[in-house]
Amino acid sequence: MNTSALASAATHAVSLASAVCREVQRSLEKVRAITKDDKSPVTVADFASQAIVGKVLRDRLGAGVVLVGEEDSKWLREEEHAAHREATLAAVRTVWEDATEGEMLDAIDIGAGDTRHAGFWTLDPVDGTKGFLRNQQYAIALAYVERDVPAVGVLGCPNLPRNFQADLDRPDRHGCLYTAIRGMGVSETPADDPGAKPVDIRRLDHAPDEAISICESVESGHSKQDDSARILEYLAARGVTSRAPARRDSQAKYALTARGQADAYLRRPTKKDYVERIWDHAAGSLEASEAGCFVTDIHGHALDFSHGRGLEKNKGVVCAPPRVHGMVISAIEALGIGRAG
Ligand code: AMP
Ligand code: MG
Question: Ligand 1, closest atom to CA 216?
């Protein structure tokens, strides 16, 4: 099957999963009341999103589809989680009206595929769970990895405004959805209207006299924020000005950099042995590289998707248009960031 057909199926899947996540977002209190658990809305959205993506991919691409999802249904099948099951089924039924509990659980497990295939899908059903719970930025991230390289990436950002002036910490009514095909670019549609005319996203390189704006995780446990400050200080000493880092959850950071609203997405490991998961980077890195960014780890090495579910050979991420990417990698090297000792 050609990549355009795969991208069309993936866009369909992610737009429906985005609608389901929005529905859970609208009924946070109701979900919490059913499950008697404060974090349950994100658990429910995670399972419901994965069920929908699994079902759409299988319906459109056939039973042989291989999907490596972050979730499996074991926990949800347990007797004591009946309330979560009920809330998940209610969410799933907003777009898959006649789904039964059994069909929903089986659809979640379509995501139990493994990476030892020449081509497989990888999914983060709700990336940025903390952002989801705060009703800020989160993403549904789906990518097709073909012979170890992301070939199609779809990123649904249901709370991301298209308007650069809008407050990113407030949920947008429409959201944005990005579809990238390797070598063919990346386009944007409203997340709630994937049939709308897509707009091509291609960012300019950063202009030398402009202050650099970087984005990084909200969670200090996910990216070493002190290191961003050190990098910006290093650049400042060389006459490169910057703004205070913007902190956002999820792969929306790749989208912000791809569309030119940020000049870099930095992710610096906080723990020596943390291995980045493929579903946290496959879709987002393709959006950004197709928009004209370089995406590497902090040492300038390409992200290597050939080691199963983890980016075993990489440390952190630097995503930026070429000029900024070069400056950041040089700063990291000069400061000895990420080197032993
Ligand atoms: P973000 O929203 O960019 O902070 O990233 C969210 C993702 O961080 C989640 O999907 C997790 O897979 C991932 N994550 C969890 N623990 C860590 C960690 N210690 N370092 C980096 N990423 C992590
Ligand atoms: Mg994630």
Answer: 3
Residue 129 annotated as catalytic: yes
Atom 16 (ligand 1) nearest CA: 222
What does the alpha-carbon distance between residue 226 and residue 286 come to, in Å, rounded to a whole number? Answer: 27
**pLDDT recorded at residue 37:** 86
Measured from the CB, is residue 250 less than 6 Å from ligand 1?
yes
User: 95: how many CB neighbours lie within 10 A of its CB?
Assistant: 18
Tell me if 268 CB under 6 Å of ligand 1: no
Please tell me the distance from the alpha carbon of residue 213 to that of residue 207, in angstroms, as a whole number.
Answer: 12
Distance of alpha carbon 324 from its chain centroid, rounded?
A: 22
Q: How far is CA 80 from CA 35, 102, 177, in A?
A: 10, 17, 36
Residue 6: what are its φ and ψ, rounded to 5°? -65, -40
Given phi > 0 = left and psi -120 to 50 = alpha, else beta, which region is 183?
left
pLDDT per residue as tens digits for the range 227-285: 999 999 999 999 999 999 999 999 999 999 999 999 999 999 999 899 999 999 999 99
* Whole-number Å distance between alpha carbons of 320 and 332: 14
Over residues 128-160, the pLDDT tens digits come to 999 999 999 999 999 999 999 999 999 999 999
CA distance 284 to 222: 16
In angstroms, how far is CA 336 from the centroid of its own chain? 29
Spatial CA neighbour of 189 closest among 204, 179, 181, 202: 179
